[in-house]
């Protein structure tokens, strides 16, 4: 009976395959695998280079040789121990310098000017950078600029009459999952290595930086491939190989490349300014979770939630308000909060952009003038000073309420001084948090201030009670709180109603 069921299932699969065979054949004919990439590779190999770097590290500490092990008199090999741990050797090795060398890949993008692209981590902290070409020639390179956020670097060599071969960038945005790609690089120091695979995935976030948007490929990429190009079948660079996932250190078919559409803007700025000049909205954002979407009555859990503004006089974002949900920036739809910083950063400083927002359930379009991103805007400070659990004995029992696992009090001068709350922060202060409560789970801390609930400002514990009662009356299960830390930084927290 089992065998008959298996045969029946196989027969059904065959019927489905037969009914769709014509359409599958058409697709296969249109996008068939390349029979060979030899002609393509031969025209590109000369543009791919090996990057060799060296760094001098000075010794500053004595090694373990200064404290010789205790060896009994007459013990076997005693004389060798004495020689090895002699004071003469200690003096020679103390503060000695040593050179560390590394290898990577790169590719020429401008033959006349000698411009070469590689990864920032390939040349980071290097004292000397040398470019090795396929014909065996070598040229010293200088660093024009680097960007650690996208892991890109731009080098320049003086061709000295040497004719270089350059490649050009393609459109990574139009590259699709399943498209054939070819990587050329310098794995383990073996220059001119060609591997072929497909695009396995797009828009990968591997927590390498704030603008992660990697192309994933199964083309073999190993150590030494970093900085090398990922080509499409037209010979255009659609990615810069930069990372792999590998427990063993070798390729397991999971490699990542920086998309060319992201790289070209960064490289243009490195060429022009020697640094990056990114656009900024001067706001803090949070993802729109399903809980937040439900609290704000949003149709979908998409967009980026404005959770506060950053003081920056170069930015005009007056039309944005805390609690707005950004759904479109210029022509780009914002489906995930992670997309917004990257798209804004790629925009020119000073540009005026139409930003589409959802506010109180209504869609609006406002204009924002971008400023220049400050590096500190990318940093998020977190405190390990967790005061969860227990009651604050100094909190006044009067003029306080207990809700959602928090004791909330009016923000008096005494409490403002005790918790170091800035003068421009207004709301209801959290004087205690019950362990394992809803507030505890969302890491609300004693001394933080509830500014509003479901976009309605609260100034007294009575305001909080009224808002919670209204939410329950409307059948809501969660409350959306805007919470301010002592430094004024805002964030949104969704708490379940008790």
UniProtKB/TrEMBL annotation:
Keyword set, alphabetical order: Hydrolase, Periplasm, Protease, Repeat, Serine protease, Signal, Stress response
Known EC number: 3.4.21.107
Domain of life: Bacteria
Region Disordered: start-end pairs: 377-399
A biological process term (GO) from this entry: proteolysis
Family matches, as PANTHER family: PEPTIDASE S12, PROTEASE DO-LIKE 8, CHLOROPLASTIC
Name of the featured protein: Probable periplasmic serine endoprotease DegP-like
Organism: Bartonella apihabitans
């Amino acid at each position: 009976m089992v065998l008959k069921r298996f045969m029946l299932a196989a027969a059904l699969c065959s019927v489905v395959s037969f009914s769709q065979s014509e359409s599958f054949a058409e697709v296969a004919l249109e996008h068939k695998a390349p029979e060979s990439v030899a002609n393509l590779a031969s025209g590109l190999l000369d543009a791919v280079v090996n990057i060799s770097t060296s760094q001098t590290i000075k010794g500053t500490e004595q090694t373990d040789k200064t404290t010789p092990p205790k060896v009994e008199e007459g013990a076997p090999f005693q004389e060798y121990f004495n020689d090895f741990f002699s004071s003469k050797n200690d003096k020679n090795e103390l503060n000695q310098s040593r050179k560390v060398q590394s290898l990577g890949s790169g590719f020429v993008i401008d033959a006349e000017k000698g411009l070469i692209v590689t990864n920032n981590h390939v040349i980071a902290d290097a004292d000397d950078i040398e470019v090795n070409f396929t014909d065996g020639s070598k040229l010293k390179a200088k660093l024009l600029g680097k960007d650690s956020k996208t892991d890109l670097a731009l080098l320049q060599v003086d061709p000295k009459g040497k004719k270089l071969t350059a490649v050009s960038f393609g459109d990574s945005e139009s590259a699709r999952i399943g498209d054939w790609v070819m990587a050329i690089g310098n794995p383990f120091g073996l220059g001119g290595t060609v591997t072929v695979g497909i695009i396995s995935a797009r828009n990968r976030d591997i927590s390498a930086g704030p603008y992660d948007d990697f192309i994933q490929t199964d083309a073999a990429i190993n150590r030494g491939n970093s900085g090398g190009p990922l080509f499409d079948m037209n010979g255009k660079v659609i990615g810069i190989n930069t990372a792999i996932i590998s427990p063993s250190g070798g390729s397991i078919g999971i490699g990542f490349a920086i998309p060319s559409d992201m790289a070209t803007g960064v490289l243009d700025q490195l060429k022009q300014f020697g640094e990056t000049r990114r656009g900024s909205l001067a706001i803090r954002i949070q993802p729109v979770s399903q809980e937040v979407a439900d609290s704000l009555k949003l149709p979908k859990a998409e967009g980026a939630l404005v959770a506060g503004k950053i003081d920056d006089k170069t930015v005009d974002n007056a039309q944005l308000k805390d609690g707005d949900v950004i759904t479109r920036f210029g022509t780009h739809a914002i489906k995930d909060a992670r997309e917004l910083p990257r798209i804004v950063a790629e925009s020119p400083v000073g540009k005026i952009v139409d930003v589409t927002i959802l506010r109180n359930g209504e869609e609006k379009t406002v204009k924002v003038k971008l400023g220049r991103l400050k590096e500190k805007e990318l940093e998020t400070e977190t405190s390990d000073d967790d005061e969860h659990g227990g009651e604050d004995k100094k909190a006044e029992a009067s003029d306080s309420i207990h809700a959602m696992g928090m004791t909330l009090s009016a923000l008096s001068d005494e409490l403002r001084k005790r918790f170091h709350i800035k003068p421009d922060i207004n709301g209801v202060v959290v004087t205690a948090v019950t362990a394992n409560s809803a507030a505890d789970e969302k890491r609300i801390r004693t001394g933080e201030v509830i500014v509003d609930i479901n976009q309605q400002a609260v100034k007294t514990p009575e305001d909080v009670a009224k808002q919670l009662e209204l939410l329950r009356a409307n059948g809501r299960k969660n409350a959306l709180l805007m919470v301010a830390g002592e430094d004024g930084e805002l964030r949104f927290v969704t708490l379940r109603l008790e």
